[in-house]
Amino acid sequence: MTKLRFSHIAVALVILATATAIMVSAEAPNTSLLDEYKGPYGGVPAFDKMDVASIKPSMEKGMEMGLAEIDAIASNPEPPTFENTILALERSGRPLDRAFSYYGIWRSNMSTPDVREIQAELAPKLSAYSSKIRGNEALFARVRAVYESDTVKKMRPDQQRLVLLTYDSFARNGATLEGDAKARYAEINEKLAELHTKFSNNMLHDEEEYVLYLDENQLGGLSEAFVKSMASAATEREHDGKYAVTNTRSSMDPFLTFSTERDLREKVWRTYYNRGDNGDEYDNNAICAEILQLRNERIHLLGYDNYAQWRLENRMAKTPERAMELLEAVWPAAIARVAEEVADMQEIADAEGAGITIEPWDYRFYAEKVRKAKYDLDSDEVKQYVQLEKLREAMFMVAGELFNFKFTPVPEGKVPVFHPDVKVWEVTDKTSGKLVGLWYLDPYARTGKRSGAWATTYRSYESFDGEKTVLASNNSNFIKGEPGKPVLVSWDDARTFFHEFGHALHYLSMKVEYPTLTGGVRDYTEFQSQLLERWVLTDRVINKYLVHYETGKPIPAELVAKIKNAATFNQGFETTEYLACALMDLIYHTTDPSNLDVDAFEKEQLARLHMPKEIPMRHRSTQFAHIFSGEGYSAGYYGYMWADVLTSDAAEAFASAPGGFYDKDLSKKLVKYLFAAGNSVDPADAYREFRGRDAEIEALMRDRGFPVPAAAN
Ligand SMILES: [Zn+2]
What we know:
Elements: H1 2-20, H2 55-74, H3 82-91, H4 94-108, H5 113-134, H6 137-148, H7 150-153, H8 157-171, H9 179-209, E1 211-214, H10 224-236, E2 243-246, H11 249-258, H12 262-273, H13 285-301, H14 307-312, H15 320-351, H16 363-374, H17 379-383, H18 388-403, E3 405-409, E4 423-429, E5 435-444, E6 454-459, E7 470-478, H19 491-509, H20 525-532, H21 539-544, H22 557-566, H23 571-588, H24 598-608, H25 625-628, H26 639-655, H27 664-676, H28 683-691, H29 698-703
Parallel strand pairs: 5-7
Antiparallel strand pairs: 1-2, 3-4, 4-5, 6-7
Helix pairs in contact: 2-3, 2-4, 2-5, 2-6, 6-8, 9-13, 11-12, 11-16, 15-16, 15-23, 18-19, 19-20, 20-26, 27-28
The protein binds zinc ion.
């Protein structure tokens, strides 16, 4: 496909050149990705004219232009004001933003070895670009002057928040430091980047190097499909005729769930959970300790007591104590449920005459037997009621009811797309008919497209220089069926589809004046999308859209009940393995890391928490890439549960509203406070406006099938 399109462009260029006789130097760098969007709907990306050769020149030129804009702002002879500094920053970097929209498509939707090579080349340049902006002292001096001025205090709350967020993006990253402290700060960052990479590389080594090769007589209990994949994994590693269990989650998990060979299960389990902890040159213990030490030193330079305090300050949770409070409130119920799950499993093992005590490598295996006995859900049966097109229609119905949006297909050819599978809809307000934006959908898997599902924007809402229409997209990896036949989707994928559509609705419904305020807060941005998942199982969706692909009959109530029931299966295990990580993450980042022996500390802390002996941390310290291979989730792993609490609590608000999940008043509040406000309001305040109080954990406990603590509030 890619080839075809490129030859189209080549042909077009030849025609253009001969027709107009304009000579363009063959070496002229193609920077077309920086161009203004042209065409209908306030301009749309020229996805039909993408050329890999334009990536590097466009990105490089875009950075150059961005830095020139920054220099102009920083060296403005006028005294710093909100308009000439903060808003000027909001206006800067537009061409590079546009180039990023295309670059994102190449990286996620249509990657090739060429693109990956360019990515490797661009990554350090992009990081140098943002360091240059953040390290611009003259620029920071102006931002600070505005931040500290009296005029800001008289501005609108969203403008004050914009100033604060802009100031923070510098100050929280070392801009306030001077002299030796500044130099040390930069040195620490460099060293940390090195250690984060080393941590990942060590982990990767242990995942790639430890492979268990099995013979045909060691495959008891394993499915045919899994055995096939093991055989090809062995062949790839030049062990033809053998069966490879690789040291990754996607291999370990099914093996431990289904293998009847207990000693092999133990071996696989030990190898997996010892990644990074083998006492060899790839051991991560010392690296974790050094990372914690350096992070601690760095935030001390900024005047914080501990790393988590610095990290959570601008999150919804605000303090490590509040995040910890949530985790500790759920923990006792989680480990109590583990005890029940283990008892259930022991009973099955005893009845079988297995003569064993349940050990960690038995958990998944016996949990599967419990699942079969108590929660059996036939995924193929469910699939017959879940059709891709109907799901999309259901999403449009929900968006119509809650957001007052109408989706109309854009005629083919009116808006350029990067692949013929991509379809585009026009989104308008149902009442006023006013254009909101476009929604692009790239539904199917193909080579070069990353796995999973995601949402993105090619242009976000803003209104300070004229209102912009939103260009939002959803991307999935559904398997394209035979032409004319409905695409049937698994239950998990259906929920994910709604989830990602939730992100798209968030983009589409945003009503904030400034680009920075469309940004997210880490422990809050997943909440809106998680919440939208809850509409999949509302009656209106069930009765009209979850219908059998042949008979057209709605999914039976009995099957819906099974789906709901299955959601509480194995929650002791899942919640505990997750919570142990979330707790350890916060403990690591609130503890003085001097002379830390990571291995011993992990053991000691888990013992203190009464971690059930049948379950390890989902990611043991030496393999906890979320927090040690970078800082994306460091002191932030709790965020998943934080968002879950909001989701459960908000879902109960709908469940108990007079109009249920389609209650008009509550929908209005939902859109106004939780979606449209973006990051223009503190998330905690926004939630309080919606709910009339803070979120409470009881709803989450009910969702997971845990008893609700009497004293919880
Ligand atoms: Zn999400």
